[in-house]
Design brief:
- The complex is a heterodimer of chains A (about 220) and B (about 800).
- With about 220 residues, chain A is an alpha/beta fold.
- Chain A has a single domain, classed as P-loop containing nucleotide triphosphate hydrolases (Rossmann fold), CATH 3.40.50.300.
- Chain A has 7 helices and 10 strands.
- A 6-stranded mixed sheet of chain A has the order 6-7-8-3-9-10, sandwiched between helices.
- In chain A, α6 (about 180-195) links the parallel β7 (about 165-170) and β8 (about 195-200).
- Chain B is α+β, with helices and mostly antiparallel strands.
- Chain B folds into 4 domains: about 1-45 and about 295-430, no CATH class; about 55-280, no CATH class; about 435-470 and about 680-810, no CATH class; about 475-675, no CATH class.
- The longest helix of chain B is centred in the middle third of the chain and has 38 residues, at about 340-375.
- The relative contact order of chain B is 0.11.
- Classes of the chains: A alpha/beta (about 220), B alpha+beta (about 800).
């Protein structure tokens, strides 16, 4: 049996909106094994993004248990939590969220800086990555000089550079046309084949089909998986 | 990592050119001003510290109260130095300066040059003060009579070089052509010395009744042995007074000890004053030079700090105002694993980088304006002194400090964004209340308003002094020096010039109502034998028949001296204060008594009372004064009545040149001499004015930046409002109202503070303006107007923009 990367047990997320307590995620039970490619589906407001953010430790569950690689995340301090996600999780965003002031090369390099990787090693790692995706010629361009698909490609490279155990992608093709979408989704599928564990949130049936498992959310509850 | 920080900081600066320009201009003005003031303050604090023995050198000061007249002098009696050296082993050495004779005429070729920077000193000068000698032996240089030590400048002026000067003879006008031999040449005395002489003549050539403990005419400096507590030493002076002064005083006054003298409200005190404190803390009568004032050092330092702070606040406000632009970056970096600490460092690097760029621009400003600043502040600061190690370290550290002060708040503010909110675009940048930013704007404008009010008050006070009713008429009075002219020639010249068209009257006037003129203080009593209770001191000026008319004074009782009354040689005219001191109800015809040099009693009859006139600075009230007929012909005063001053002056000069060809024609106008008494106040006024202008410019720069960003953030809102029918005026008002409120609030806060500061400053003047409401009102209007102009510039631009453009951008 494959290793379990994370497991959620009756995990909930509520927010206080004025005097009302609004439940965004309700009693989520989910287990993710290494090598899975999960697609979170559901209409707007169903809680996909919140679930993804909570898994990615950018946000926290207010109730229930969350174990990541056997460690109880819900009992951790903020600092340890950020250490954990820095080490094991890579993020890909709908709006790419590249740093406009940095060149392609520097954007990819940034996570390594924060990990404290030595300069010579960084250089080699980024060069490998650029080579692997065939974009060596674009390394000195700024994000605005790239097309949307190319920007998302850089976003993915940046997520991959730290060799994460888990990649979280929130509507990765939301801002792209269908040709670019297909390219990106095929890339994810390929990465998954090579062993990466991926969770994506998506509206699109087509995109969801690339995954190995689909989890449907409605009003904060898992309705089928 | 740091390389990455600098790289991204640099690109950010280039990307936001407007923001960067405002920040750099503001900060470099602030830093430049701070550096300039640092130069000034360092110079002020460095006075006399270059002397090797500075830490144990002291000046003997005298404080006397006698008969209601108070004197605090920087001089003491001639035997004092020698006496304490003999009696107290703590005193290692002493040196006296005597320059009561004023300037000397010194022969160069066929003409005489008038030299002001002259003094007579003891041969111990070089034991106490450190003046590097170029040629000659300092230990023997001033031992013999008729010897003189020159500075390099003087040696070059008269002989060509220090080497050529050594052994040469210098001819002066002392006692009809005394010759002095140049025995040594020293380097020029540094500018940061409280005295500045070019000629040091031997003390042996001073014609003075030495051994007199009761006359205070010598600047005396003593060197105490290492480790002596000078304040403890001060207690010894009482012993000295009882042992030496009381016996001398007893010859004409009935006292047995100092306690008796003090019992009647009089006072006699001596004290040591540290050499290095003289420039900033001493403002006594008869100082050797014009001293500074520690108060102004504090005020300028404070102003410099505030201007720097105002500039830092601009940076803080602009950085936080445009935080939405950086928010995404912060979010992304946090997601990529950046800790908050590292983001804080990144933003601090950015602010320090701006500060470092600013210091270069700031130094450029300093380099450009130092000459101008020297002009208004009366200093001779040099740009090159910034290159000294101490200053270089300061220049390297300053931007770091500025970077941290300006950058800390934005760094903590920006790094606090939570990534999830930022990346979802939920970070509200709307019209959220920003209390701190508002507070900082208020602080900036309040400071500016205080500076403006301060400047106006200083200028008003100076004007008030210049137009005050002085009790005499200072305009159109020409004062010519008669030095080097024989007595009879003085009389002839005076009479000849008096006949000229445009000259109303002429008078010998050695004593003038400006503080740079001669003074003579004498004791009087209302009964033939002086006791502690009937004696008092007052100024005692020798004048001639035409003096009161020429200077424009007013007799309010009795009469002026007159050639028709033979007995006027024993007559005396008092001013109103002197009448009060004497206690006369009806002064005319009353007798008062004084003594001459030989202790003979002289009786004077009061014939008139002159209206009080200000003869010292208007900081002081008018003290007692008396006129008698006598000779004070070293200066002649001419009252002119002409529109062609220059032409008349030329004619008078020719008269003098014709009468005494070798002598320099030296003159001054009474109003100029009067203005010079307030030179320091005018300097402070000018410096304060320039800083006030600078402060308001920097503050407005910040306001300009803020309103630019607010308008940018609200572009869409402005578009929507315009589509809905808002007029340009509506939009401008909407954008400006908040800021105008802040400026108004600053004014409300600044007014009482400024009132308090300036009332305190005015306390220094016996004659002062009242702080009228309009000063504050006008300042408020000025501040508001400047702020409004700044605001509307951007607000109108935002308001006239075509709404279609701003709405399409979505």
């Amino acid at each position: 049996m494959a290793n379990i990367i994370l497991s959620l047990h009756e995990a909930s997320r509520t927010v206080n909106s004025g005097s009302n307590k609004v439940t965004i995620l309700d009693d989520i039970n989910l287990q993710v094994e290494e090598g899975e490619f999960i697609s979170l589906m559901g209409p707007s407001g169903s809680g996909k993004s919140t679930l993804l953010n909570c898994i990615g430790m950018l946000d926290a569950f207010t109730d229930g248990e969350y174990a990541f690689l056997g460690q109880s995340v819900h009992r951790m301090k903020e600092k340890d939590r950020s250490k954990l996600y820095k080490e094991y999780i890579g993020f890909v965003f709908q709006a790419y969220h590249l740093i406009d002031e940095l060149k392609v090369y520097e954007n990819i390099e940034t996570p390594l800086l924060y990990k404290g990787v030595k300069a010579s090693e960084r250089k080699a790692m980024v060069a490998d990555m650029l080579d692997r995706f065939g974009v060596v010629g674009k390394k000195d361009l700024f994000p605005q000089q790239l097309s949307g698909g190319q920007q998302q490609l850089v976003g993915i490279m940046r997520a991959l550079i730290g060799s994460p155990k888990l990649i979280l992608a929130d509507e990765p093709t939301g801002n792209l046309n269908s040709k670019q979408s297909t390219e990106i989704m095929e890339l994810f599928a390929e990465l998954n084949k090579e062993g990466a564990t991926i969770i994506q949130a998506t509206h699109s049936e087509n995109n969801a089909a690339y995954g190995s498992r689909i989890v449907n959310l409605l009003d904060g509850k898992i309705v089928s998986q | 990592m740091i390389k990455n920080f600098i790289k991204i900081a640099w690109r950010n600066l280039l990307k936001n050119k407007g923001f960067t320009t405002i920040n750099i201009v503001g900060l470099s003005l602030g830093i430049g001003c701070f550096v300039m003031i640092s130069l000034y303050v360092t110079d002020e604090l460095s006075y006399d510290k270059f002397h090797e023995n500075a830490h144990r050198t002291y000046r003997i000061d005298s404080d006397v109260i006698f008969g209601g007249t108070e004197l605090s002098m920087a001089v003491t009696s001639d035997p004092m130095g020698e006496t304490i050296k003999n009696d107290y082993p703590e005193v290692e050495s002493y040196v006296r300066f005597y320059n009561s004779n004023g300037s000397k005429l010194i022969r160069k070729g066929n003409t005489f040059i008038n030299e002001d920077a002259v003094t007579h000193v003891d041969s111990t000068l070089f034991k106490i003060f450190s003046f590097p000698v170029i040629v000659g032996d300092p230990h023997t240089a001033l031992v013999e009579p008729n010897s003189v030590v020159l500075t390099e400048t003087a040696a070059e002026r008269y002989f060509g070089s220090p080497e050529l000067a050594l052994g040469q003879m210098l001819e002066t006008d002392d006692n009809n052509e005394t010759l002095y031999e140049v025995t040594a040449v020293i380097e020029d005395i540094p500018k940061n010395s409280h005295f500045n002489f070019d000629f040091f003549f031997s003390m042996h050539n001073v014609n003075y009744g030495f051994g007199n403990f009761l006359s205070h005419n010598f600047h005396t400096y003593v060197l105490l042995r290492e480790g002596t507590d000078y304040q403890a030493f001060n207690r010894n002076f009482r012993e000295v007074i009882n042992k030496y002064l009381v016996p001398q005083a007893a010859q004409f006054m009935q006292i047995d000890n100092i306690e008796e003298f003090e019992a009647s409200g009089n006072k006699l005190e001596y004290s040591l004053f540290p050499l290095t404190d003289i420039h900033l803390y001493s403002s006594r009568d008869i100082e050797l030079g014009v001293n500074g004032n520690i108060q102004y050092v504090y005020i300028f330092s404070g102003i410099a700090l505030f201007i720097l702070l105002i500039a830092c606040i601009n940076f803080m406000n602009l950085s936080t105002a445009k935080s939405s632009g950086r928010a995404k970056e912060v979010g992304v970096r946090k997601v990529l694993g950046s800790e908050r600490k590292s983001l804080i460092w990144q933003f601090l690097t950015e602010s320090s980088l701006i500060a470092y760029i600013s210091i270069f621009v700031g130094l450029f400003f300093v380099w450009l304006t130092l000459g101008w600043f020297n002009g208004i502040s009366g200093k001779e600061l040099e740009f090159s002194s910034l290159l000294r190690t101490k200053f270089l370290a300061f220049l390297v550290l300053l931007p770091l400090v500025v970077g941290v002060i300006a950058g800390t708040y934005p760094a903590f503010f920006l790094s606090s964004f939570t990534p999830i909110k930022v990346l979802k675009g939920k970070l509200s940048m709307g019209p959220k209340k920003n209390t701190l930013r508002n507070f900082l704007v208020v602080f900036q404008f309040a400071t500016s308003v205080i500076l403006i009010i301060g400047t106006i008050v200083i200028y008003k006070q100076i004007n008030h002094i210049q137009s005050a009713n002085l009790g005499f008429d200072k305009d159109q009075v020409l004062v010519v020096s008669n030095a080097g002219i024989a007595g009879s020639a003085r009389e002839t010249l005076k009479n000849e010039i008096e006949q000229m068209v445009g000259v109303k009257s002429a008078s010998f006037a050695g004593y003038l109502p400006v503080s740079s003129s001669s003074r003579s203080d004498t004791s009087f009593s209302t009964e033939t034998v002086m006791t502690e209770s009937n004696g008092f001191n007052m100024q005692h000026w020798r004048i001639d028949y035409d003096y009161i008319e020429t200077i424009g004074m007013e007799i309010i009782a009795g009469r002026n001296f007159s050639r028709e009354f033979g007995a006027d040689s024993t007559a005396i005219i008092l001013n109103e204060t002197a009448v009060k001191l004497a206690g006369f109800e009806d002064p005319i015809g009353k007798k008062i008594y004084t003594t001459d040099e030989n202790a003979n009693t002289i009786t004077r009859t009061v014939i008139g009372v002159v209206k009080n006139f200000n003869y010292e600075s208007l900081r002081e009230n008018v003290a007692g004064l008396s006129f008698v007929l006598g000779n004070s012909s070293w200066e002649t005063a001419y009252r002119l009545d002409t529109s062609n001053i220059a032409g008349l002056l030329n004619t008078i000069e020719n008269k003098y040149k014709a009468a005494v060809p070798n002598m320099p024609f030296q003159y001054t106008f009474l109003d100029t001499a009067f203005d010079n008494m307030y030179r320091q106040e005018r300097r402070v006024g000018r410096v304060a004015l320039s800083f006030a202008v600078l402060a308001i410019i920097i503050a407005c720069l910040g306001l300009f930046g803020l309103v630019t960003y607010v308008a940018e953030q609200r572009t869409k809102e402005i578009g929507v409002r315009k589509v809905l029918g808002a007029s340009i005026f509506n939009i401008v008002r909407m954008l400006s109202t908040d800021f105008v409120k802040l400026v108004a609030l600053s004014f409300v806060i600044a007014t009482p503070l400024a009132w308090w500061f300036m009332s305190n400053w005015l306390q220094d003047f016996a004659y002062r303006i009242t702080l009228s409401w309009w000063i504050f009102f006008v300042t408020g209007l000025i501040a508001l107007a400047i702020a409004l102009i700044t605001l509307s510039f951007q607000a109108i631009r935002a308001a006239v923009a075509n709404p279609v453009n701003s709405l399409r951008s979505e």
